[in-house]
Amino acid sequence: MVVVVVVVVVVVVVAVVVVVDVVVEVVAVVVEVVVLVVVVVVVVVEVVVVVVVVVVVVVIVIAVVVAVVVVVVVVVDVVVVVVVVVIVVVVVDVVVVPVVVVVVVLVVVVSATTGLLIANTQFT
């Protein structure tokens, strides 16, 4: 009878040990799966952060390029306006002023001549 009790106790102890071992293994697998999920989430977050940083850098580069283009356009506009003003001033100085002077001189000469002719005919 003692042998049967010992065998039953041994079987119960072995069964408890096996159940505890299985539970420990299941818990270990669950912990490993949770760790893997956490690692995957961390990697995904890191990838998203890298993508956001790349997008921000690209936006900054585009903004710098646009700023440079705007500055170049403004400089070109200013240069064109200055060149046009210089050309107009030169044309006025070289062409218009002499023509106006010649016309004024001709008007004065014609007026004087006409006045002399009129005066001459009145006294004769």
Automatic annotation (TrEMBL):
PROSITE patterns linked: ABC_TM1 (PS50928)
Intracellular or extracellular location(s): Membrane
Domain ABC transmembrane type-1: 49-124
Principal place of residence: membrane
Entry keyword Amino-acid biosynthesis: no
Keyword flag Calcium: no
GO BP annotations listed: transmembrane transport
Origin: domain of life: Eukaryota
Keywords on record: Membrane, Transmembrane, Transmembrane helix
Bilayer topology term: Multi-pass membrane protein
GO cellular component, one term: membrane
Positions of transmembrane segments: 6-27, 34-62, 68-92, 99-119
Name by which UniProt lists this protein: ABC transmembrane type-1 domain-containing protein
